[in-house]
Design a protein that fits this description.
The complex is a heterodimer of chains A (114) and B (113). Chain A has strands at 3-6, 10-14, 19-21, 23-26, 31-38, 44-50, 56-58, 64-68, 73-78, 87-95, 103-104, 108-113. With 114 residues, chain A is mainly beta. Chain A is globular, with a radius of gyration of 14 Å. By secondary structure, chain B is mostly beta strands. Classes of the chains: A mainly beta (114), B mainly beta (113). Chain A binds chain B through residues 6, 9, 32, 41-46, 49, 51, 90, 94-96, 98-102, 104-107, and chain B through 4, 31, 35, 40-45, 48, 50, 58, 90, 92, 96-99, 101-107.
Chain lengths: 114, 113
């Protein structure tokens, strides 16, 4: 069965600084990878996903993520954050050809300070 | 507007009482999901349904039940057997393939008094 580890539960940064949110996964088969964002007291929305092809994936709001198969990682990056990026970010994985379920990490709370 | 609605936004339950959380979607999606979110735990799958009149248990189904009589509706009942019902419950839907984006509702916060 697959699993996801988000290495940092909280990441504080200053506005306009770069940020990287780390995600590692484990699976015995090939995977699909996703990043979702949750703003306070709301549901989740998709930031980006890796299905196949280019390992660098660009998403909404200036975020991007790179799939690294050898390191089983899918870290999320943004070169310059805004106050409005303050939210909780979830990495998720599903097996290719397996069940239709997503397995989520425990989340990373990003706080952008002025 | 297309989307997913969940009601109520806040729900209070007395111990020993069953309650039902509503989830409706007008996206014409085949698949629907219920997740439970606890602080520091991420999202854990309770139940999911790939098609009308069919559903499967997720990772934490004990103390919960669902039905899928209509494509657009997937209500979740939290029974008195659920030992820790206080949680933020999220409903989602997708076209149905594992590669598809899941679209989430705004959630229902259930508190046991």
């Amino acid at each position: 069965a697959q699993s996801v580890t988000q290495l940092d539960s909280q990441v504080p940064v200053f506005e306009e600084a770069p940020v990287e949110l780390r995600c590692n996964y484990s699976s015995s088969v090939s995977v699909y990878l996703f990043w979702y964002v949750q703003y306070p007291n709301q549901g989740l929305q998709l930031l980006l996903k890796y299905l196949s092809g280019s390992t660098l994936v660009k998403g909404i709001n200036g975020f991007e993520a790179e799939f690294n198969k050898s390191q089983t990682s899918f870290h999320l990056r943004k070169p310059s954050v805004h106050i409005s990026d303050t939210a909780e970010y979830f990495c998720a994985v599903s097996d290719q050809g397996g069940s239709e379920k997503l397995v989520f990490g425990k989340g990373t709370k990003l706080t952008v300070n002025p | 507007d297309g989307g997913i609605t969940q009601s109520p936004k806040y729900l209070f339950r007395k111990e020993g009482q069953n309650v039902t959380l509503s989830c409706e979607q007008n996206l014409n999606h085949d698949a629907m999901y219920w997740y439970r979110q606890d602080p520091g735990q991420g999202l854990r799958l309770i139940y999911y349904s790939q098609i009308v009149n069919d559903f499967q248990k997720g990772d934490i189904a004990e103390g919960y039940s669902v039905s899928r009589e209509k494509k657009e509706s997937f209500p979740l009942t939290v029974t008195s057997a659920q030992k820790n019902p206080t949680a933020f419950n999220l409903c989602a839907s997708s076209i149905g393939l594992v590669t598809d984006t899941q679209y989430f509702g705004p959630g229902t916060r259930l508190t046991v008094l």
